[in-house]
Amino acid sequence: MNGRFFQSRRLLPARRVALLATTIAGLGLAAFVLAPHAPGITPFGTAQAQNLTEKVQQLPQRPVGFADIVEKVKPAVISVRVKVERPANSGATTDEDLPFPPGSPFERFFRRFGMPNQPNGREVVTGQGSGFFISRDGYAVTNNHVVQNAESVQVTADDGKTYTAKVIGTDPRTDLALIKIEGSGFPYVKLAENSPRIGDWVIAVGNPFGLGGTVTAGIVSARGRDIGAGPYDDFIQIDAPVNKGNSGGPTFDVDGNVIGVNTAIFSPSGGSVGIAFAIPADTVKNIVAQLRDKGSVTRGWIGVQIQTVTPDLADSMGLKQATGALVSEPQKDSPAAIAGIQSGDVITSVDGAPIHDARDLARHIGTMSPGASVKLGTIHQGQDKTVTLTLGTLPNEKQAANDPGQNQREVPDSDLPRLGLTLAPASKVSGAEAMGVVVTAVASGGVAADHGFQVGDVILDVGGKSVSTPADVRKSLTEARTEGKHTVLFRVKSNDGTRFVALPLGNA
Predict the structure, then answer these.
(1) Catalytic site residue 145?
(2) Closest Cα partner for 464 from 308, 241, 338, 313?
């Protein structure tokens, strides 16, 4: 929920991509920041049930400002308030526990006097976010992290009326949720049919810091952003100012279509610095349709560990282009393994659509239904090959990674000083039958360290050949150098899974 940060793996520093829901606070705090509303359901009149996007498109011309557009679409945007029970924090108060801007009177007050706790060691806390109606019968979209583990959900419409909402379904992998308000005649907006262009105007409407009905404007700064939130990252980056509490709110184009759902900001301070991320409308449509029909999301699955083909990997494998998804290891009895896909294969297309990298493959397969038949274009041992398989269902939980480093001890049987590696047979380190060679030491600043090798990693293959002793590694390196290769390909198993690493031969 609020105050949490993505642990970014690639693009952004850790704890700087913050989820946008306003930070949760004890029920005792709500009176300071929230105007009371009587609970209950008071549906809009039937006369108000209008497609607001169509009304925007009926405007005679696009205005210089955004007031006419905002006037039409703003009634479809809602503030979302949830109650969650959690363990009491024993009076500890951190930046993530306070919903107030740094330096505000309320923030100083609660830092001095602390947060109220429940006597039984549990406390009921409130959190806030945003959302928007997508149908006249009360279906609305928000973020999963806004309503996750909620005991109750209430929404406040633009006219100030409060309604009780039910969570229909959530999808943590894309951070989307579908909620339902009983009644009919609600004003609603449409999800965009076309993707925005970089530089297009956008308008964000939401509930930052509990201040409902806030409108900001900016442009699309970038598309296809990967912020390390998950394998399906494909965010739209905008510079319209958004803050905590904007989570789940819509970003509109100048035609009144929702181009994305605001979900995260890049922020060293916790406030807006002009970099925000929205879930694209095409993703929202796919997820919402499944949540509405089934209450959950199922995704296709082929069962492989994959990585992006880098220029070094392409060179070491003799590939013409650094493109596609490299199969590090197919999972046992998975659709890919049954179809004959092997470690070292490169998946280059799905049903004829080109695959540019590992994330591209994950998104393609994730949008397909389990049971569907797909054709994968692959490069197998340097030759183009087409493989047909039937998609399985993506498991709900990621399978636990193997831990080859348990009970390890350094056995300096062999040293490869130019690589910065000390190696030992895996069977000797583990005391059992094991394949590969264990990394028992990594020299700081060495080539291997620069390429991510760590103590406990197990080298399975070098140059496409299995290794079981340090001598096997030396032999494979010598053969690769004799063949005139500039890099050599290592297949390495670690706690995070299996991957390929290309090391430059000039330093070995």
Answers:
(1) yes
(2) 313
